[in-house]
Request: fold
Amino acid sequence: MSWGLACILIVFLLLLKMPVDTLEVMEFSFRERLEQGPILGDGAMGTQLYSRGVELRSLDRANLTAPDVVKAIHLEYLQAGSEVIQSNTFGANSVRLAAEGALDDFEAVNRAGVRLAKEARTLSGQPIWIAGAMGPLGHERAPIGALDAALAHNAFAQQAAILADEGVDLFALQTFTALSELKVAIEALRSVSQLPIMAEMTFTLEGITPAGDTPEEIALALADKGIAAFGGNCSIGPEVLLQVVERMAAIVNVPLTAEPNAGLPEYVNGKLVYATGPEYFSESARHLVEGGARLIGGCCGTTPEHIAHVRDAIKGLSITENRNPVASHPALIVTRSAPVVKPVATGLASKLASGEFVVTTELSPPRGFDITATLEKLRPVIGHLSAVNVADSPRAQGRMSALATCSLIQSRLGIETIMHQAIRHRNLLALHSDLLGAHALGIRNVFTVMGDAPRVR
Reply:
């Protein structure tokens, strides 16, 4: 055997020992894959962990306390056909973990999250990408001012540096509620790594973010950031994100993403249950690809079964080129008409209309800004309630507003609220403002009362 032939044989044998995913993923980059056709992401991690007994407060720390469960979920998504899986690190930034009293676990949680995803990739033998999942900081408002922006920048950069050091292939910024915070996160990531970035925001029923950013404003703001893809995730369901994708695709020529929730959750027998099944979800995925999305996945409530149905639904679909990109004409944002959204009856309204017996409980908002104790008192009885009544400054005492309390209860406990609105001490403008704010935050049940008269001494 000649020396040249022997060298070729040795290289071939070494390649055979190389992990399959290393061989195949090296053929093209994540950006190149986005250009080839629809790429399938994974589904929910948090609700999957919750359904398997992990407490809501410990979802990210499950990397340390229940690593086999986390790895099993990754593997199930890979078996369903996911080409991109996200590390279980969405809420593992230093700000959130410090609020949970788990700051000491910050580095360990993030490193373990990436390692578990990599172990799942190796076990599956599939050519896939691992995205380092990163969520917002969890503040009640987005960073405002130089000090808040600097603290946020440091928190994002610190987490991104660990994820990059552990070997993620890209970053996935998800469920951001304000464009201002997302831009800080992107700048922070770029300060520590040049890995591809996928950025996603969450949208209300009206097709805007909770902070009021429109799809057009977001698309134009991110189009020149050099990120691999952007779009929406979470939100109310596929229908809202279809509107978002179509509106973004009309003005920019950048790969778009869509990873919606499986609808809104309901409490059934003490558990959060999402109503949108795999069949309907996968049909919506086809529409999202046809609307311009290049990456399709799922968020809260989606399962490996949802992803498997999406895999079959988008198979063979070609990507849709973004239509008429006009990023150089931001004035179009002003003249574009917002889509008309058909009102949807609340769960409480539907039950009352059908004659179903409903049970509610009334509570007074906390006297300070910490709602933790109030939420803990509600948790044991949530499964027995149809809604929670929130009083408005009962007995004319200073408390957290009913509007803020309702929003926090709905977002953290997943149950409808009934916002009391006292009219004695509000003028018409104040009433109008509160109702607009309630609608933007997803509060649809309002109970108007005269209210207790404030005493002046």
Residues 146-166 form the longest helix (21 residues). The two ends are 105 Å apart (CA to CA). The first strand starts at residue 39 and ends at 40.
